[in-house]
Input
Amino acid sequence: MATQKLTPEMNSLLARIREMGASAPTLDELERDIVEAMSEQIPYYDWTGFYRLDPEEPETLVLGCFVGELTSHVRIPLTEGICGAAVVEGETIVVDDVKTDPRYLSCSLRTKSEIVVPIRARGKVVGEIDIDSHSPAAFKEMDRAFLEEVAGIVGGYLERQGGRAV
Ligand code: SME
Output
């Protein structure tokens, strides 16, 4: 459970998110409750959202629930963006300075750093959590640990639903 690396605020948020994962009636509601709670509780999570692999076109990510500025990146091919790279690599990607990463697709001129965490169900990547911050190098080991726990909760929810795409 990697919880000792987290702040007390993150641990209590995780406990709330575990409850959400146990009781959310739909995936959309679970995603919405998670992005709202994270953006309220963690001040440097300035854009907080989910992308899902399109079941009709599995080489493309589709924007799900989010809190933050509107983005033109509502569909992202896996060949593009930090978002595409995180699915292809199947690993969390942390970018301390988005200006220096040629893969970066800009959502807001204010974004300085980004973390993208894949969500797996039955061993396959089905979507991801994407967080942008207006602060440079905002995402530390504890953010990775926290968000990987959240991704595990969403992946577990999907598995209980029968493994449908996020
Ligand atoms: N920055 C992402 C695109 C999504 S927006 O930030 C919401 C990327 O490089 O894939």
In short: The chain is about 35% helix and 25% strand. The chain has one domain: 3-159. Residues 6 and 146 are 7 Å apart (CA to CA). Residues 3-159 form a domain with the Beta-Lactamase fold (CATH 3.30.450.40).
